[in-house]
């Protein structure tokens, strides 16, 4: 019977066949240990010379790394294995022999591994990160589907930008200018006026010349937008969503978290509600911590966000940023004209902002004034302004950056490991 590694718990004591690749091996005179992977997981195959024909044992001793195989054997429980099972091998059939596989079990430099990203993905560590990424995506759909949100796909090619065009990739759309999307938000607002509660999940692009461990040129965003929803209600959705994906990973990716050496006790504390501080309070806090360089009206950098996050065991909301440093579409606070109804959610352990959100301006005249104040009067935003002409309502939304979230939950240092094929400032290959 042909099965996958993830299914072996159903076939203890039975002989099965698994299509796999050889990740690694070691052998002595009388026994060979084959580290096998098939995409669903990793398992050890044990080949005992006295229990198989000579040809099978010799084949097992000579198999090269990443050779593809059909391995037949009996499933056994094994408490010493992190997986809990191993395979007592009875036969090995080579499908394709791999010769001189470039990524050996020795240490390799980051650039070498990035040049071989198409192969590095096969490693146990990268496999674990990708499985956690997949679980976050699965849990995302579960969360929003269970709460009545409709999935909507905004365009990737746009004629305008939600936050200005300075960090956008420009291209020609036949005889007019177009940009790769940096956010689907404006289109999601239109969708919310039609469907009530919506979310998107897709690629976004920022032509930002940054080399930090938190930045990618191409990354994926989950962007919910909700009609008849004010800022405070949106914050509750955000903290419930983040709690849900963290707890889902804890429940369904224990083996992967263990592979990565993640301290799960920190993740177990991630349950709503989350602490909140205002921008004003954050500035005061940073001054107390010796950050004399920052003044009211400045945006926070990575050291500032990390210092704030270190005071909490959970993600922390920083609310009500100055109007002057936030995009044109954010609703001013009712009691102050200099700040807006927005929040950034800062992850613990130095991973930075994972969510940015706000209540959107729903008054036609106010939005028109804001567009003019930002020099956005070309007509490209006419459709967006029209949303405030025909049955406008209070509405709010936010965007979660998938890769930063994967990095935080999995505990990896750099976002380049959290996406299958990262696009960095100096990397477009492979």
Description:
With 430 residues, the chain is of the alpha+beta class. The chain has 2 domains: 2-96, Nucleic acid-binding proteins (OB fold (Dihydrolipoamide Acetyltransferase, E2P), Beta Barrel); 118-417, BirA Bifunctional Protein, domain 2 (2-Layer Sandwich), CATH 3.30.930.10. The chain contains 13 helices and 17 strands. It has helices at residues 54-62, 110-115, 117-120, 124-146, 185-195, 231-252, 254-259, 264-268, 279-288, 302-309, 364-373, 382-386, 402-410; strands at residues 2-3, 15-27, 31-37, 42-48, 68-77, 85-96, 150-151, 157-158, 170-173, 176-180, 197-205, 218-227, 276-278, 316-319, 342-347, 352-360, 395-401. Helix 4 (124-146) crosses helix 6 (231-252). The mean pLDDT is 96. It is an enzyme of class 6 (ligase). Residues 130-430 form the Aminoacyl-transfer RNA synthetases class-II family profile domain.
Topology:
Layout lengths: L1 E2 L11 E13 L3 E7 L4 E7 L5 H9 L5 E10 L7 E12 L13 H6 L1 H4 L3 H23 L3 E2 L5 E2 L11 E4 L2 E5 L4 H11 L1 E9 L12 E10 L3 H22 L1 H6 L4 H5 L7 E3 H10 L13 H8 L6 E4 L22 E6 L4 E9 L3 H10 L8 H5 L8 E7 H9 L20
| Helix content bin | 25-40%
What's the CATH architecture name of the largest domain? 2-Layer Sandwich
Distance between the termini: 37 Å
In total, how many domains does the architecture comprise? 2
Task: Kindly report the CATH topology of the largest domain.
Answer: BirA Bifunctional Protein, domain 2
The fraction of residues assigned to DSSP E strands is 25-35%
The CATH class of the largest domain: Alpha Beta
Q: Encode the helix/strand succession as letters.
A: EEEEHEEHHHEEEEHEEHHHEHHEEEHHEH
Low-confidence stretches: none
């Amino acid at each position: 019977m042909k099965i996958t590694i993830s299914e072996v718990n159903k076939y203890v004591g039975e002989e099965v066949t698994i299509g796999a690749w050889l990740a690694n091996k070691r052998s002595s005179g009388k026994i060979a240990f084959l580290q096998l992977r098939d995409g669903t997981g990793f398992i050890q195959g044990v080949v005992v010379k006295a229990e198989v024909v000579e040809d099978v044992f010799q084949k097992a001793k000579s198999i090269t790394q990443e050779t593809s195989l059909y391995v037949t054997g009996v499933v056994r429980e094994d408490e010493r294995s992190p997986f809990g099972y191993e395979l007592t091998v009875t036969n090995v059939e080579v499908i394709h022999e791999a010769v001189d596989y470039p990524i050996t079990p020795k240490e390799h430099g980051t650039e070498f591994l990035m040049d071989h990203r198409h192969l590095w993905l096969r490693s146990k560590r990268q496999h674990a990160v990708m499985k956690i990424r997949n679980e976050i995506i699965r849990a995302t759909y579960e969360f929003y589907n269970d709460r009545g949100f409709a999935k909507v796909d905004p365009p990737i090619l746009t004629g305008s930008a939600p936050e200005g065009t300075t960090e956008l990739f420009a291209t020609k759309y036949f005889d007019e200018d177009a940009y790769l999307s940096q956010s689907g938000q404006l289109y999601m607002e239109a969708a919310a006026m039609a469907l009530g509660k919506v979310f998107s999940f897709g690629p976004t692009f920022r032509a930002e010349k940054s080399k930090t461990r938190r930045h990618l040129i191409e990354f994926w965003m989950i962007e919910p937008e909700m009609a008849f929803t004010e800022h405070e209600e949106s914050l509750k959705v955000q903290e419930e969503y983040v709690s849900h994906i963290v707890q889902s990973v804890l429940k369904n990716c224990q083996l992967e978290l263990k592979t990565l050496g993640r301290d799960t006790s920190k993740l177990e504390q991630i349950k709503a509600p989350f602490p909140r501080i205002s921008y004003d309070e954050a500035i005061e806090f940073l001054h107390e911590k010796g950050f004399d360089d920052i003044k009211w009206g400045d945006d926070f950098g990575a050291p500032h966000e990390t210092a704030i996050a270190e005071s909490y065991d959970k993600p922390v909301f920083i609310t009500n940023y100055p109007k002057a440093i936030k995009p044109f579409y954010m609703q001013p606070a009712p009691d102050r004209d200099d700040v807006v109804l927005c929040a950034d959610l800062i992850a613990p352990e130095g991973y930075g902002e994972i969510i940015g959100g706000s209540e959107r301006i729903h008054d036609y005249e106010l939005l028109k004034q804001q567009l003019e104040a930002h020099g956005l009067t070309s007509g490209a935003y006419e459709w967006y302004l029209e949303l405030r002409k025909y049955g406008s309502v209070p509405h709010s939304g936010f965007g979660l950056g998938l890769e930063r979230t994967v990095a935080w939950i999995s505990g990896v240092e750099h976002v380049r490991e959290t996406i299958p094929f990262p696009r960095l400032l100096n990397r477009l290959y492979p």
